[in-house]
Here is the input.
Amino acid sequence: MKKEQSIRIENLTKSFGSGDSFVSVIDGASFTINKGELVALVAPSGAGKTTLLMMIGCVVDPTSGQFWLGEEKVYNNRWLTNNSRQIRREKIGFIFQAHYLIPFLNVLENVTLVPQTNKIPTKEANAHAMELLKYFDIAEKAYNKPSQLSGGQNQRVAIARALANNPQIILADEPTAALDTERSISVVKMLKKIAAEQNVAIIMVTHDERMLKYCDRVMKIEAKKIVFE
Ligand SMILES: Nc1ncnc2c1ncn2[C@@H]1O[C@H](COP(=O)(O)OP(=O)(O)OP(=O)(O)O)[C@@H](O)[C@H]1O
Ligand SMILES: [Mg+2]
Here is the structure.
């Protein structure tokens, strides 16, 4: 099977502030990630992992460079669309350290929130969400609130939610930081399986060396550039 590109980045830079408060975080990052890959992102605190993820997620504006999502060029020293928020809703899935499920919505409603915002009909959104909940072995909790689930169960719901809009890429910022080792391994194995089975790219920030062997590649930020191990 031919490898399909999920994202391509050329010469991306990001700095904050100006004058005395100027700080350069990323300076000339270039890389490609293909669909089906689980990539770990490892670097010391403050190196720019979250900043890089948020640029890929169209949440933070790069300073300069070029960026393709799938085959579509979305950034060339400026966003090439006047609605980067829509790209984010339609093409990106996010998983965070804390699950950030909405406490007053049940599990099913949490998973269908973004598809509903994208105007997917309720019936279709619910059917897809139930499929995902079954896949994650959590369908029996569909009508429970997040407060009635365990940490690991909520993180699985959060992963289902990230998949609900059939994203081009899933960005996971330390998704296992709040879990014990056994649960962390099970979440990472799950991400690996999703990447392969759903043919989606996943970038996962982790500080835990034990998770690296489950990933296809390890990406690092060194001297403000991206290197692969
Ligand atoms: N909005 C901002 N304004 C100014 N500086 C910022 C801003 N956001 C991030 N930075 C700076 O950019 C650098 C990278 O931050 P980032 O949060 O991306 O690091 P990180 O690798 O995710 O760290 P951690 O492992 O601690 O989460 C830091 O020096 C930070 O202070
Ligand atoms: Mg961070």
Remarks:
- The first strand starts at residue 5 and ends at 16.
- The chain has six helices and ten strands.
